[in-house]
Automatic annotation (TrEMBL):
<dbReference type="InterPro" id="IPR001214">
    <property type="entry name" value="SET_dom"/>
</dbReference>
<keyword id="KW-0479">Metal-binding</keyword>
<dbReference type="InterPro" id="IPR002893">
    <property type="entry name" value="Znf_MYND"/>
</dbReference>
<keyword id="KW-0863">Zinc-finger</keyword>
<protein>
    <recommendedName>
        <fullName>SET domain-containing protein</fullName>
    </recommendedName>
</protein>
<keyword id="KW-0862">Zinc</keyword>
<dbReference type="InterPro" id="IPR046341">
    <property type="entry name" value="SET_dom_sf"/>
</dbReference>
<dbReference type="GO" id="GO:0008270">
    <property type="term" value="F:zinc ion binding"/>
</dbReference>
<dbReference type="InterPro" id="IPR053185">
    <property type="entry name" value="SET_domain_protein"/>
</dbReference>
<comment type="function">
    <text>Probable methyltransferase.</text>
</comment>
<dbReference type="Pfam" id="PF00856">
    <property type="entry name" value="SET"/>
</dbReference>
<dbReference type="Pfam" id="PF01753">
    <property type="entry name" value="zf-MYND"/>
</dbReference>
<feature type="domain" description="MYND-type">
    <location>
        <begin position="6"/>
        <end position="50"/>
    </location>
</feature>
<feature type="domain" description="SET">
    <location>
        <begin position="59"/>
        <end position="176"/>
    </location>
</feature>
Length: 323
């Protein structure tokens, strides 16, 4: 009977074949060779993540067939509270770097390696196309309960719960965001065609992504987000006026956007605006504290983004905007 899966080569393991990581006591392997590979950059680089309390397959989540014909999906095996780091998956940046058995197992089953790569990889402007083998099993839902980010300097995807996920619930992400306030209306309007043509996702008329009232709110939030950097920020009163708009955007984003990842950039904006004037300087503390917390959740303490945020938290005067 299958007990675990090898975290590196992904083969199913019976209980008496499981070799556990001696550090986290959660990550499992089929052999010493697989553990060595996974410890370094060939795999997850578990040396970095061993003490980070990351969820693991077969303990916290599992891959199994869905009930709606989508094929395989990722399901919670216990309650996963909001902001839980569900998965850290090594990111492959080139198709030739992916071990053949890994990519061969992906959809489309009869497709070429390039077709499998194109279907399952994620594009990010800062890092190009990247593929996570386990992340590729997470299905799309416009009412997603998780989100993912590729951390370039760690060469890893992090999958994060954006609300409490109940035991047995399928874990889902958006392949293409309908509620990203940082993107233009044209980009958001093209989304439906993109997800239909690439992933065969056909949203019903009742889908949240087609809610016209919500779409108007998202557009207004986008316009506010675009306006904030253009506002005058020389006097104390001007900066306070801008910060009121930052607070308004944070409140709106919390209700309509995709969780902590969307709020992170606005927290940072609030910080760098507040430190422009000595009279508004004390207001920076809330923004940088929230930004640091969001970086820990989304990027982890291991990332260069978190380390830079920590430096600003400890010494705001090193920021170029400091009065």
């Amino acid at each position: 009977m299958v007990s675990r899966h090898c975290a590196y080569c992904l083969i199913p393991l019976e209980a008496d074949k499981v070799k556990m990581c001696g550090g986290c006591k959660k990550r499992s392997y089929c052999s010493r060779d697989c553990q060595v590979n996974d410890w370094g950059a060939v795999g997850q680089h578990h040396k970095q993540w061993c003490k980070e309390q990351i969820c693991e397959e077969d303990i916290d989540w599992e891959i199994r067939e869905t009930v709606d014909g989508k094929g395989l999906g990722v399901f919670s095996k216990r309650l996963l509270p909001k902001h839980t780091r569900i998965m850290v998956d090594r990111g492959y940046r080139k198709i030739e770097d992916v071990p053949l058995p890994f990519i061969n197992a992906l959809m489309p089953h009869e497709g070429t390696l390039q077709e499998k790569w194109d279907l399952n990889s994620f594009y990010r402007e800062e890092s190009g196309d990247n593929l996570g083998i386990r992340l590729a099993r997470v299905n799309h839902d416009c009412r997603n309960n998780a989100t993912n980010k590729f951390i370039t300097d760690l060469n890893a995807f992090i999958l994060i719960a954006i609300r409490d996920i109940q035991e047995g619930e399928e874990i889902s992400i958006q392949y293409h965001f309908y509620n990203d306030i940082s993107t233009s209306k044209g980009y958001r309007d093209a989304r439906e065609q993109v997800i239909r043509e690439k992933w065969s996702v056909n949203c019903l008329e009742s889908c949240i992504c087609r809610d016209k009232v919500l779409a108007e709110r998202i557009q207004k939030a986008h316009e506010l987000d675009s306006m904030i950097p253009t506002m005058p920020m020389k006097t104390e009163e001007q900066i306070k006026r801008v910060l009121k708009n930052v607070d308004l955007l944070l409140k709106e984003s919390e209700q309509i956007s995709n969780g902590i990842m969307a709020l992170s950039r606005t927290y940072y904006d609030g910080f760098q605006i507040a430190i422009l004037h000595k009279k508004t300087y004390p207001l920076h503390k809330m923004y940088i504290q929230k930004y640091l917390e969001s970086c820990e959740i989304v990027d982890s303490k291991l990332s260069s983004t978190y380390q830079q945020a920590l430096k600003y938290y400890q010494n705001p005067s090193i920021h170029r905007n400091h009065f």
